[in-house]
Specification:
By secondary structure, this protein is α+β, with helices and mostly antiparallel strands. Helices cover 35% and strands 23% of the residues. Helix 1 runs parallel beside helix 2 and helix 2 (41-62) runs antiparallel to helix 4.
Length: 146
């Protein structure tokens, strides 16, 4: 994003889900509130990259038939953007975000490092055979609209 309007991230995330859906075999549903995607520009870029990587992981690893992208304003004013799938779940070593575990890969670990630059975080919940829920949590001080 190069200095666009505060809702540009919202439009980019909608388009990302459209592209994901068009690639086939996995439905992508969106329930994003535009006011939950208004962050400072540098934070918006990291959030976009994070959601993109999470969707790539769903396609590559989850064996899902459906993914949902949604958002929530949390009690403390922070914003949570959730990527939830109905796939096979994420093994415990992957949820911890360890780089280069038994199966290799640094995707979630890299995401976590980039988010921490803004005191944001990635909260991952998963159970074998019950899908994965990955929430990007951005502190309230980076939200630029209500």
């Amino acid at each position: 994003m190069t200095g666009g309007s505060p809702t540009e991230l919202h439009a980019r995330l909608l388009e990302l889900c459209d592209v994901f859906r068009a690639a086939g075999q996995i439905g992508c549903e969106v329930a994003l509130d535009a006011s939950h995607t208004c962050f400072r520009e540098e934070v918006s870029e990291v959030v976009y990259g994070t959601i993109h990587e999470l969707l790539v992981n769903v396609r590559r690893h989850a064996q899902a038939t459906r993914v949902e992208l949604s958002s929530v304003r949390r009690r403390d004013g922070s914003i949570g953007i959730l990527v939830a799938d109905n796939g096979v779940g994420l093994p415990p070593h992957r949820r911890r975000g360890k780089p280069l575990p038994e199966t290799g890969g640094t995707g979630l670990w890299t995401i976590d490092r980039r988010l921490r630059d803004f005191d944001a975080m990635l909260d991952v919940e998963a159970a074998e055979g019950q899908g994965t829920r990955a929430m990007v949590i951005v502190p309230a001080r980076f939200v630029v609209c209500d």
